[in-house]
Specification:
The complex is a heterodimer of chains A (about 325) and B (about 325).
Chain A lengths: L6 H16 L3 E3 H8 L3 H12 L13 E3 L4 E6 L11 H15 L5 H18 L9 E3 L7 H13 L1 E9 L4 E15 L2 E8 L4 E6 L3 E10 L23 E7 L5 H5 L4 E4 L5 E7 L3 H10 L3 E5 L1 H16 L3
Antiparallel strand pairs in A: 1-3, 2-3, 5-6, 5-9, 6-7, 7-8, 10-12, 10-13, 11-12
Helix pairs in contact in A: 2-3, 4-5, 8-9
Chain B lengths: L2 H15 L7 H7 L7 H18 L3 E4 L9 E4 L1 H4 L8 H12 L7 H13 L11 E4 L7 H10 L3 E5 L8 E13 L2 E8 L4 E6 L3 E7 L14 H9 L6 E8 L4 H4 L2 E8 L2 E8 L2 H10 L4 E5 L1 H15 L1
Helix pairs in contact in B: 5-6, 10-11
The chains are: A alpha+beta (about 325), B alpha+beta (about 325).
């Protein structure tokens, strides 16, 4: 990894390393390497570089004195870099924006108090660097899910199972299910319950704004060992090979579809039309989407879905005769 | 990475921190090892070094020790350099770890980690992090990076933007006031110089590069500007002023029933739902979504709009 680190990034690390040791008096080489995300060898290189700093004028001297014998680092002379550099605007903003977002999540009163204290402390410590963070904001969408987030945290804290009435718009269906909660996800400002669904016998994500009712049951949650967290970093909804491949053409007015739903590929056609290819395990919502789009969308494939859509549209029109 | 450059920059920081007097470029060259003999090469290198330090947030000061000095010098004031004393409780440290994870795959990930590093350097414990809540933001839009910089540095920008329902992007010149994420989408709000009006743009509708078109500090955010409010107003929906009367098949249209009055079994297999809506085209989209399970009885314009959609499918 060190090959990708720039000189200034390494300088940042060096400037943090001295105060890291100073504030702890003595620290282990291994622990410190872990804390800084470097190998022990890289850490030793850093320590050597610090120890070698030399100023030549007016009189030559070495301002930093340290040792790392026996796997323990000690700094006996830190001179002027014994304290960390203050937070840069980007750094203060990244933390403050994230903290203010977390503060919008309902529930978790303990966290709330810690959040409030921490935001105040960081604002004070960052000083002017904190001001830019006011220009960035993330709003948490909790229209209907407000109370449910609270209950889910309660269930998580006490390790209990929940019962959900959950609406699936793609199928226009209300389902009843018992779920062993694993985590509350807050992705792109939208809360989800991640849990082991006993009905589906699998990990599922539930959008809180589609939860119609939620009860915390008096049953210990017991997700099976194979219940693994969803990998939030690779996207919440990943298409699988088993999914149906749908080809859909959209007019300029229907183009918003490509902004809302993840697609596999997009090709520009003439007159501002685009063709998107997407994969889905359940084509029910595509059928409904096509009805909604009217002349602004055309499903091209698969042909079974094309027929299904035409049948549904004809049946719906019959209702108006 | 150049080891020599890191050494030189480190020496420069230590040197300028340990002086109270301003040091001239020449004095700095004498004190810090690693600068070249050639005056020209030295000057260029020193300029770049100063810029690198300022980019890192090192408060490099320029000034004269004496009003009659001919050449300005440099120093770093200890007080301006140091992170102020900051003691974090264990629960605060845990929340901070959570906050740093928010940006894990997004534009500000490096900044969040840098901040965490400094706070750990200030003595904060590597606290145990909560596992039962996982927050994440992403910034897939290439426009996010430059727009955040523009907002931070108060610089105007130019970009091409494709408005909803249009296929051709239009060029915009914007004095950006802030960046807001609402319902999972990033927006930038500011003063549109071409339209001479406050405007909000979605970042995922910006096509091509975002270019700076003015100096840092040249954008003035009007006092009392609330960017969240601007985006909310822009995105806001009108009041539900209209009433629709619908036939809804028994057991279907759950989403519709949630916000309406239901009279069950008005005819076999059908309930009647009366509900409020905001806009004909929006609600016609929604009613058409339910296909043969929902029939609009009234008003006529809504009824026609749904029929038009269904005919459009069969066209």
């Amino acid at each position: 990894m060190s090959a990708l680190v720039t000189s200034t990034e390494r300088l940042q690390r060096l400037l943090a390393l001295v105060p890291y040791v100073v504030s702890r008096k003595v620290v282990g080489l291994a622990d410190t390497a872990t804390a800084f995300g470097v190998s022990q060898r890289e850490l030793v290189d850093d320590l050597n570089m610090l120890w070698c700093v030399e100023l030549r004028s007016p009189d030559p001297y070495c301002p930093i004195d340290l040792s790392y014998e026996g796997g323990e680092i000690m700094v006996s002379q830190a001179e002027s870099i014994g304290r960390p550099l203050r937070l840069a605007v980007d750094e203060a903003s990244a933390l403050l924006v994230a903290l203010r977002m977390l503060a919008e999540v309902p529930g978790g009163n303990q966290d709330r108090s810690a959040l409030t204290r921490l935001i105040a402390k960081l604002e004070a410590a960052a000083g002017e660097a904190a001001s830019a963070s006011a220009q960035v904001a993330v709003q948490v969408e909790i229209n209907n899910g407000q109370g449910f987030a609270d209950q889910i945290r309660l269930a998580l804290d006490s390790g209990r199972r929940v019962h959900l009435r959950y609406y699936v718009p793609g199928r226009d269906e209300t389902t009843e299910r018992d779920v062993d909660p694993m985590r509350l996800l807050l992705v792109e400002g939208r809360p989800y319950l991640e849990g082991w669904c006993l009905r589906a016998e699998g990990m599922r994500l539930f959008r809180l704004d589609r939860v119609l009712a939620l009860d915390v049951l008096d049953i210990q949650a017991a997700p099976p060992p194979e219940a693994e967290h969803v990998d939030v970093d690779s996207g919440l909804f990943r298409p699988s090979e088993a999914d149906v491949r749908v080809e859909l053409e959209l007019s300029p007015e229907g183009r918003w579809v490509a902004e809302y739903y993840p697609y596999e590929s997009l090709a520009e056609l003439t007159d501002g039309w685009v063709r998107v290819v997407l994969r889905t395990p359940d084509t029910g919502w595509v059928r409904r989407l096509a009805l909604r789009l009217g002349e602004d969308g055309r499903v091209v494939a698969p042909s079974t879905l094309v027929d299904e859509i035409r049948t549904a549209a004809a049946a719906a029109l019959d209702n108006y005769r | 990475m150049s080891k020599r450059k890191t050494e030189r920059l480190l020496g420069l920081v230590v040197c300028l921190l340990s002086t109270r007097r301003y040091l001239t470029a020449g004095q700095i060259r004498d004190a810090v090892p690693g600068y070249p003999e050639s005056e020209d090469v030295f000057k260029r290198m020193f300029e770049r070094d100063k810029e690198d330090l300022r980019d890192l947030g090192v408060p490099l000061e320029t000034g004269l020790n004496h009003p009659f000095d001919e050449e300005a010098g440099y120093r770093i004031r200890q007080q301006a350099y140091e992170l102020p004393e900051l003691h974090l409780e264990a629960d605060e440290a845990a929340v901070l770890g959570l906050a740093a994870r928010v940006w894990r795959r997004a534009e500000l990930a490096g900044a969040a980690n840098g901040a965490l590093l400094k706070l750990r350097a200030a003595g904060m414990d590597n606290a145990a992090i909560q596992q039962d809540i996982e927050p994440r933001l992403s910034t897939p839009e290439p426009a996010f990076g430059p727009l955040w910089e523009a907002v931070r540095d108060r610089r105007p920008v130019r970009f091409a933007h494709r408005a909803a329902g249009r296929s051709e992007p239009q060029s915009r010149e914007l004095e950006p006031w802030g960046v807001v994420n609402r319902k999972g989408r990033w927006y930038v709000a500011g003063w549109d110089r071409g339209r001479q009006a406050t405007r909000v743009f979605r970042l995922d509708r910006i096509a091509g590069p975002v270019k700076f078109c003015g100096l840092p500090g040249s954008v003035i955010v009007p006092a009392g500007t609330d960017v969240r409010e601007l985006v909310r107003d822009w995105d806001s929906v009108p009041a539900r002023e209209h009433t629709a009367v619908l036939r809804v098949r028994t057991g279907a249209g759950v989403g519709l029933r949630r916000h309406g009055d239901v009279v069950p079994d008005v005819e076999p297999g059908w309930d009647e739902v009366t509900t409020r809506y905001r806009e004909v085209s929006w609600f016609a989209d929604y009613a058409a979504w339910f296909g043969p399970d929902v029939v609009v009885l009234d008003p006529p314009d809504l009824r026609e709009a749904v029929i038009a959609r269904l005919k459009g499918v069969l066209a």
